[in-house]
Amino acid sequence: MNRIILTVSALVKDNLRNRFVIFWVIVFPVLLTLLFSLVFGGFSNYFHVMVVVQGNENLAKFLNTTDIFQGITNVSLTYAMKHNYIYLEVNGTTFIIYASKQNQQFIPTLEAIVREYYQQDVNNNLHFNVAKITNYTYYDYLISGMIGIVSLSNGVLGIIGVSAGYYRDRLVERLAASPLRSYEWVISLIVYVIIITIISTITVIILGIIFNFIPIISLSFIGFIILSTLLFGGLGAIIYGLTPKDKIFLSEIISNILIFPLMFLSNAFFPSNVYPQYIREFVQYQPLSDIITVIRDFTIYGTLPNMSTILIIVILTIIFIYTGGKLLKLREID
Amino acid sequence: MSNGIAIEVKDLHKSFKDKEVLKGISFTVNKGEIFSLLGPNGAGKTTTVKILSCILKPNKGYVRVLEYKIPEECNKIRQNIGVLPQDYQGFIDLTVRENLEYFVRLYEEDKSKVDELISMFNLEEVENQKLRYLSGGYIRRVGLASAFSGNQKIIFLDEPTVGLDPKARRDFWELLKTMKSKGITIFLTTHYLDEAEKLSDRVAVLYKGKLIKVSTSKELLNEFKAENLEDAYLELINSLDDKNE
Predict the structure, then answer these.
(1) Average pLDDT over every residue of B168-190
(2) Chain B residues with CB-CB distance to A169 below 8 A
(3) Do the Cβ atoms of A174 and B130 come within 8 Å?
(4) B88 closest CB neighbour out of A6, A170, A330
(5) What digits encode the pLDDT tens for the residues A12-33?
(6) Which member of B50, B83, B89 has the closest CB to residue A169?
(7) Per-residue DSSP letter, B29
(8) In a domain, B114, yes or no
(9) Among A197, A243, B22, B43, whose Cα sits 20 to 30 Å from the Cα of B171?
(10) Number of domains into which chain B is organized
(11) Residue B225 pLDDT grade (very low, low, confident, very high; cuts 50, 70, 90)
C-alpha cells in the first residue's frame, strides 16, 4: 500500500508539472467546451426541431414536410425532455405543448403549422396550452457530454502517455528491477488516471456553472466516472501492451486515431439523430455514447440509468482492466 | 556458492519467440569486482543484465545472484541490487531530491539516506532542479545515486557513459571506483573499450549469444599481443567474423 501511495504521488507530481499533460487534463476540455458553447450555444436554430406528437400520427408526418420540424411518435414525455424535444399532446381540438425554455421560441410557428394542418384559421377553436417544464439547455447537454469525453481522453491517453513516456525514459526498466510489484505499478497508474479525470471533471463542472448548469452530483455519479475511467484506462493499457516495444510511439498514434472518432462521433456534442443515417447506429451504440447517456441521467435528469447499459459497461470494464493489467506488468518474473 | 562469488551463471539460455539470444552462457562474478561484459550490438548484453536483474525469465540454466536463485527468489534479489539502464532519464519533472526520495522510500530506507546520496554523488548544486533541465552527466549521476537507494551489494550498469562528454565520463569512472572501494560489485556493459580497460578487474566477451572469452584485460592483451583492449577486442571479433564467413 505504501509503495502504491508513493508511486501515485510521484506520478501525479511528475505529470502535472508537465505542460503537455496540463493541456490534456485542463486546457483541452476547457477549449473544447468553450468552442462548442460559442458555436452551438443556440444549437436548435441549426437543426430540425424534434416534435413528439402524441395522439395524431398524420400530424407528425405533416410536420416532416416542413423545413423546421421533424415529427416523431411513440416516444415518452420523459424521453422527449431528456433529448430536448418538443412534446405535443393532441386531445381532440386541445393541444398541450411541453417545451423547454430554449424551444419556446418555436411554439408560435408550431401552432401556425398545426392550424394549417387542421385548415383552421386563428378564429376557430383550437386550444393550445403550453406546459412549463424544466429547462435543459445545450450547455447542460454539452457539459455532461464533456464529462464523458474527459473520462475517455484521460483514461486512454493517461495510461498510454505515462507508460510510453516512462518506457522511453527507461523508468519502467528501472522500476522493473526495483522492489515495486507489477500489481502495485498497475494500481498506481489506474489511481493516477482517476485523479486526473477528477481534476478534469471538476474543471468542466466549474465551466458549466459559469454557463448556469448546476449538475446533480451524487455518489453514484462519482462512482460511475471512476468506472468509465477504468474502462478507458483498460483500453489504453491494452493498446500499450499490444504495441511492439521497439515502436512504442505507435501506441500514441493509435490512441489518437481511436480517441478522436469516438469523441466526435458520439452524443457528446449533438444528439445521435442529427448524424447522417449511415453513421447514426455507430454514434448511438458506441461505448462513449452509452457512458454519456448515463452521465446525463445522473447529472441532468437525476434519474436512474438503464441497468442493462450499466451492466454492459461493468462487464467491459472488467475485461479491459483484467487484460490491460496483465499487459502492463513490469516484468516477466513477479 | 562460495562466499566470494556474487553472481553465478551456468548454461543460461534465453529466446524471444524463435530467436535464441543467449545460447548457454556460463560465468561467475566475484564479490567486490568490476566485471565488464563486452560485445557487438545484438550480442545479448542487455538481455543478460535483464535476466540478472530479475526482469526477464531465463528459458534454461542456473542463475544465482548473491545467495538467491533466479527466478524463485527474485523478491530478495531486487532488495539487494541496483540498476542503471541505458539512457535512463528518471522522473524528468521531479527534482533530483524528489527522484532520490522516491527510490529511497521504495527500498524502505530512512529519509536521511537522501542527503547521504546527494553528498556522496556531489549533487548538492542541483538537488532542487528538475531532471529535465540537467546535463546528461548529472542525469547519469542521479541515476547511479538512485541505483544505490537501498542497501545494494551489486550494481548493474548498462552502457552507463553513452552520450557523456569526456569530462563527465571521467567523473563517472571516479564514482565507480569509489563504489568499488566500498566493496560493491559492479557489473558493467559497455561499448567503450578504454572504459572497460581502465575500470574492470575482468572482462567477458559475448558474441552472437555465446560467451567467447572471460579474462583480465591484461590476459587479453597478452593473448593478442595488442597495445590496448580495443585492439585485442577487435582482433578477437574479426577472427570470429572470419570463422563465421
Answers:
(1) 89
(2) 87-90, 92
(3) no
(4) A170
(5) 999 999 888 999 899 988 888 8
(6) B89
(7) E
(8) no
(9) B43
(10) 1
(11) confident
Q: In CATH, what number is assigned to the domain containing residue B58? A: 3.40.50.300
The arithmetic mean of pLDDT across residues B43-70, rounded, is 93
All residues of chain A having their beta carbon less than 8 Å from the beta carbon of residue B55 are: 173, 176-177, 330-333
| Residue in B32, B12, B13, B146 with CA at minimum distance from that of residue B88 | B146
Distance CA A45, CA B185 (A): 75
Place of cell 445522473: A298
Would B111 be classed as within a structural domain? no
A212 near A139, Cβ under 8 Å?
Answer: yes
In this structure, is residue B42 part of a structural domain? yes
Query: What is the value of ipTM here, to two decimals?
Result: 0.90
Task: Report yes or no: B104 and B117 within 8 Å, Cβ to Cβ.
Answer: yes
Q: Let me know: does A189 contact A325? Beta carbons within 8 Å.
A: no
In a mutational test of the B interface, the residue from A8, A170, A188, A192 whose CB has the highest number of chain B CBs within 10 Å is A170
Band the pLDDT of B103: cuts 50, 70, 90.
very high
B227 — pLDDT class (breaks 50, 70, 90): confident
CA distance to partner chain B, nearest, from residue A205 (Å):
28
Residues of chain A with pLDDT under 50: 44-46
- Mark yes or no for CB contact A177/B83 under 8 Å: yes
Sign of the torsion formed by the C-alpha atoms of A240, A241, A247 and A250: negative
Select from A150, A148, A157, A174 the least CA-distant residue to A237. A157
CA A206/CA A198 separation, integer angstroms:
12
